[in-house]
Specification:
Helix content: 25-40%
Number of helices: 13
Number of strands: 17
Shape: globular
Largest sheet: 9 strands, mixed
CATH class: Alpha Beta
Order of helices and strands: HHEHHEEHEHHEEHHHHEHEEEEEEEEHEE
């Protein structure tokens, strides 16, 4: 009886085998089509997880990061602290400051007079979220927001703080958030880059932005952010030179690819392969980008929602609308930088201008995504690199004042993409100077964003110079209180 059973088990012909294995072979074939590198060897990094697919089910497929470069003051935006108005002009208590580090711009001040906000605050939505009068449109979508009051960082000056917020390290040559997302997940649209960058400038004092903020670092250069320009050419050097047609361009790229492959066979430098991929991407983008960047075809109700500035290339409003189109088309990570938030003085004069530039379009972007059914799978982030001091830099007058850098506690909000809507997370003291509950360090923030995208921040690594690097370096924990 036993021998007969074994004989029947082993008597499997080809038709029977293929019939039993149809689902398995089909799954393998589908996986190789959706993720071309799924079965690519991993070299000596044998414990790395496959690239191109999430580690677990993602809540957010895409990210739009509205970075407010220069650090907007939390006291004039989302952090209501009436104690500062009550004690205006009084010295910052030593028990609150606790000898914490100051910048060179205020460290030698004889006094640190507290200063409250010049602008009125009110509560909005079912959540009762406090908002400044400078942000009426964002206030109207308060119940869509997850407001973090306790972001914190070690960096106290712009360059290291900007770099830290964007790359997870204060020094350069580390991949940015967008580059890590591109490396881990790839693009949803083969005709567009996985990581795009849009720049705008406000009317206030600005801090510069530079390519190291959207760099690929030590990752392949295919993961570097592609910058969109506000000029006649949205992407520089993308168009063919005069006298070159599509077929000639194709022939030239084929010949160039052949030469590069020969060079790769001789030298084995992976950047040679990356260059070939970049040339091919540029060729495909030639047909995709012009239509995508044409905002004039948007319906009137959309233009009205974002404001007339959205038809002016290079404005924050235009970039928000373009970000929606890029995200809708499958770009994995869209990074906006809006400069002008560095109000060391003239807070009363400059802050309203910056708010006017960004308030309407930021709210419109979230509303637009929501009405299209895209907000649930798109994570929108709004915030800067650190916060502002509760005391005045220099002399405060009745009608004006300035604020220095403050890294110990500041505000950032998120919407969509699996975060808890209508939530205020964390709490600072009555002076807004120190965190009293639920801190969120930059490493924690990065870990949580990666988690929302279906990526384990401890497993998404790259071996470089003998060690494995990751966005969160050797720190960071996912914050469950931010996740729906």
């Amino acid at each position: 009886m036993k021998n007969e059973f074994l004989e029947n088990r082993l008597n499997i012909n080809r038709r029977h085998f293929l019939g039993k294995m149809t689902a398995g072979i089909g799954s393998v074939a589908l996986g190789s089509l959706l993720v071309p590198d799924l079965f690519k060897g991993s070299g000596d990094d044998s414990d790395a997880l496959p690239l191109g697919i999430p580690h677990f089910a993602p809540k957010a497929k895409r990210v739009i990061y509205l970075f407010q470069n220069g650090a907007p003051s939390q006291y004039e935006s989302f952090e209501y602290k009436p104690m500062l108005n009550k004690m205006a002009g009084e010295e910052l208590p030593a028990s609150i400051r606790m000898g914490q580090r100051l910048t060179g711009m205020t460290a030698n001040q004889a006094k640190f007079p507290l200063v409250g906000s010049h602008f009125k605050f009110a509560q909005y939505g079912q959540s009762g979220m406090w908002m400044s009068e400078l942000f009426p449109n964002i206030a109207n979508i308060a119940d869509d927001l997850c407001m973090i009051k306790t972001m914190n960082t070690e960096a106290i000056n712009h360059d290291p703080a900007l770099t830290f917020m964007q790359t997870g390290a204060q020094q350069g040559n580390r991949p940015s958030m967008g580059a890590w997302a591109s490396y881990g997940l790839g693009s949803e649209n083969k005709n567009l880059p996985a990581f795009s960058v849009l720049l705008s400038r406000g009317k206030g004092n600005g801090q510069g932005v530079y390519s190291k903020l959207w760099t690929n670092g030590f990752l392949d250069s295919t993961h570097q952010g592609v910058v969109f320009s506000s000029g006649e050419e949205p992407i520089l050097y993308l168009n063919d030179p005069a006298g070159t047609d599509r077929s000639a361009r194709r022939k030239m790229l084929d010949n160039l690819s052949e030469l590069n492959n020969m060079a790769y066979d001789d030298f084995g430098d992976p950047e040679i392969k990356a260059k070939v991929q970049q040339y091919e991407m540029a060729y495909r983008m030639q047909t995709a980008v012009p239509e995508l960047t044409d905002l004039s075809k948007e319906p009137d109700h959309i233009i009205k929602m974002y404001g007339p500035e959205c038809l002016v290339p290079g404005t924050f409003a235009a970039n928000c609308l373009l970000a929606r189109k890029l995200s809708e088309a499958g770009v994995r990570f869209v990074q906006l930088y809006h400069q002008g938030w560095d109000q060391h003085g003239n807070m009363v004069g400059e802050m309203p201008l910056q708010a006017k530039d960004t308030d309407r379009a930021s709210a419109a972007l979230i509303t637009d995504l929501k009405q299209r059914g895209l907000l649930d799978e798109t994570l929108v982030i709004w915030g800067g690199e650190f916060g502002r001091t509760n005391y005045s830099q220099g002399t405060a007058t009745k009608d004006n004042y300035g604020r220095d850098h403050h890294p110990r506690a500041y505000c950032t909000f998120m919407a969509g993409g699996g975060v808890k809507p209508g939530t205020v997370y964390g709490e600072t003291d009555d002076f807004g100077y120190n965190i009293v509950r639920d801190p969120v360090h930059i490493n924690d923030f990065h870990a949580t964003v990666m988690h929302l995208m279906g990526l384990n921040h401890e497993k998404l690594t790259y071996k470089h110079l003998g060690r494995r690097y990751r966005l969160t370096d050797v720190a960071g924990k996912v914050i469950p209180g931010l996740i729906a």
